[in-house]
Amino acid sequence: EPNPADAGSGTTKTALKKSIGPFSISNVGVKFSNSTLYICIDASVLIGPIGMALQGFSIDLFFAKGYDILTNFPKPSFTLEGLTASFDRDPLTIAGGLFHQKVDDDDYYAGGVDIAFKEWQFLAAGGYGKLTNPTTQDKFTTTFVFAQLEGPLITLEFATISGVTGGFGYNNSLTLPTIAEVPSFPFLHMPEVTGDTALDTLKALINSKWFAPQDSSFWVAAGLTVSAFQMLAISAVLVVEWDPEVKLGIYAVAVADVPKTDSEFKIAHVELGILASIDFGKGVAKFEAQLAPSSFILDPMCHLSGGFALYYWFKDGPQQTKGDWVFTLGGYHQAYTPPVQYPRPPRLQISWSLGPLSITGQAYFAITPKVCMAGGLLHASLSVGVLKAFFDAFADFLINYHPFAFYAQGGVSVGVRFTLDL
Q: How far is the C-alpha of 236 from the C-alpha of 251, rounded, in Å?
């Protein structure tokens, strides 16, 4: 029967603000699991501009095999999951850390460094370990490296290269983003963190979903950030992955401001995520783009959204046919059910609020080897005191080639409402 003493529990910590000279303890916790008592301590030391902190430090007491508190006290052992260090003296800031993780019964190490000097910032992170393949039970060595440098690097007549990024993975899998995930891809944008320090960013990057040990999987990536014409900024990265089939992808985020980026008044602001990829194993080529919700035209309250996609299949496979393709701008006709492998971009949409006047509109277009469709709608409403008015118009058509069929519908409605309280 299992020993009740082996029941595990989470770590309970309490705040303990205690400082002795440069040393300080912020939290003390207790955990009991598998007959072991863990006394967890969050401790740090700060000497001038240099700081160090322990990550996951605990004093471990094993109370099985005849050990007890009164007569046979166990010899303590120590656990340290990581160590962080920092240096902060203007204009130089350095932060780094090394972390140890247990993956089943294997050891995995991850770490990184963030260096900022005046206008430049360099960040690097990586991981290394000798792990066990769960299928073959064979040992394999895994590692990955991610690096990014930001700041003015090369200035041309009309453009500035303000960042470079890259990395590689050996027996490591890189999760490739969908079009909706492109703006959060770490090669284009660092992960959002709850803290505000470089170490918080490093830990969020190392523990993110993007990098994972995987036997016989390899990848390389390289990208840059370019600013041009004082109105355009593009961050793009090229990724090649062998998993074991080859995947090739270009991922980018483009931001355009009219008339220029630092203008107080802007006619338009457009943020566009872009994806172009080829999966040679699945036999599909994709090109997609999607507007961010922060995009606007004419007025900051006139928001733009939506996306488009072009897919082409060059291999037969489950739920796909060689030679099939689709192009869609804003989705499909409401009466058309696209095959499961077809993309589903959001509707092209404009939403404008002008005080009492509100205007919204949607549009779409799609074409495949079998059908063609398009449509749109416009809604405007006005509310002035007791008077309310609206205008609605829509039109849709759907053409099926074989057998030939044509469906179309449209409509306009106008209404005015007056409310008088007696």
A: 6
